[in-house]
Amino acid sequence: MQMPGPKSLSLWSWALYDFANTIFSAVVLTAYFPLYLTSLAGANWYLGVATTGSMVIAGLVVPFFGALSDQTGKTKSYLIKTTLACIFAMLFLALTKTPWLLILFFIVACFFYHASLVFYNALLVTVAQPGKQGQASGLGTGLGYLGVVCALPVANLADKALGRPMVFAVAALLFLLFALPAFFFVPERKVESTVRFRWGLWFTEWRKIIENVKGLRHHLARALFLGGNFFVVAALNSTIFWFMVYGREVFHPGQDKLVMVLTGVNCGAFLAGLVTGRLTDRLGALRVLCLAAAALVVTLILLAWVPSFALFVAVSVTTGAFAIAGIWTAGRKALIDLCPAEKIGEYFGIYGLTTKISVLGSLLFSIIADQAGFRMALSALLLPAGMGFGLLLFSKYLNNHKMEYSVQP
């Protein structure tokens, strides 16, 4: 057997980080923390506040992190630091049953998790050539969901053998284990000129970020992509985050069945990640992103009104899995295609800002669920999903016709 070359090793190490960090998103964000906190607190709005607080705080800071990586040339260094901070916060989730302390540690863990994604995404350009970045992104997405498939049974065993709090400690250790290859084998991102970190960069880089956001009016396809992605991810994140609670409250299956369904969704997303990665390179990132957004709209319509748990499962593992994988795989490749190479980190920061503040949809979901029921809450997500799909279609049209500069000041 031939040993993998340096480029292959760096690519697989980068993609394996997706395997690692999706353990956090599945075990903490989707499967166990929502059930844990709502059972302790006795109301859904606690979970909505915790999710919204963590994402808004992260959203306000991650654009600066992206710009900082462009300036300092320490993208991988920041990835390591934010990952370790997230892992330590996950360990603290295992040490308390007090709701407000759980919310505090959850916010800290989420903040550093989302910060790490900015640096991780920016490193995509170091492990694959432009013509292969869609496949590389799809490999990462696929391995990410494979990580969920592997982690959920382990977490379920830990839950039964050691108790719910220890699930978070086990997830933290798994996150660390599978993140290590990226720490050692992914190359640092090269920038033309670097500066030393200083706190004054906060104000300097935020001014640049604001200027770039204002300048989006000159780059309409880019602006519409960011806006459309915002609305689509708002609906997607809310659906993912409330998936287990929704299934429990609407269909009342046992926890083992819910874990099996989530495992099935992630198996489907693993395969869909590989497929959408190849499609992204062949058909174009924006086209695949539009297809995934359309799949999300269809999924929401079906999930909101299917009468049986069997149909709920069938929709989740097919169109739902395709939507999840396609939006993440094609989304980060589309950003690379639409933005200047020297500002990749900065624009991934802005991309991160839009995905983080999109969590307001999760808070809205929790309020509607408390007042009108879970089916109505899921139906309400059709509004942002439909708006996002429309904006992405328009962005694709403008980009295809090279109408990037059609709006003047």
Keywords:
single chain, 409 residues, mainly alpha, Growth Hormone, Chain: A, 0% strand, globular
Describe the fold and architecture.
The protein contains 16 helices and no strands. The chain has a single domain (7-185, 213-400), classed as MFS general substrate transporter like domains (Growth Hormone, Chain: A, Up-down Bundle), CATH 1.20.1250. The protein is mainly α and 409 residues long. Residues 1-6 and 404-409 have low confidence and may be disordered. Helix 2 (45-72) runs parallel beside helix 4 (99-122) and helix 6 packs antiparallel against helix 10 (255-283). The chain is globular and about 55 Å long. It has helices spanning 6-41, 45-72, 75-93, 99-122, 124-127, 133-162, 164-185, 201-215, 220-251, 255-283, 285-305, 309-338, 344-357, 360-372, 374-380, 382-400.
Summarize the structure.
With 409 residues, this protein is an all-alpha fold. The chain has helices at residues 6-41, 45-72, 75-93, 99-122, 124-127, 133-162, 164-185, 201-215, 220-251, 255-283, 285-305, 309-338, 344-357, 360-372, 374-380, 382-400. The protein has a single domain (7-185, 213-400), classed as MFS general substrate transporter like domains (Growth Hormone, Chain: A, Up-down Bundle).
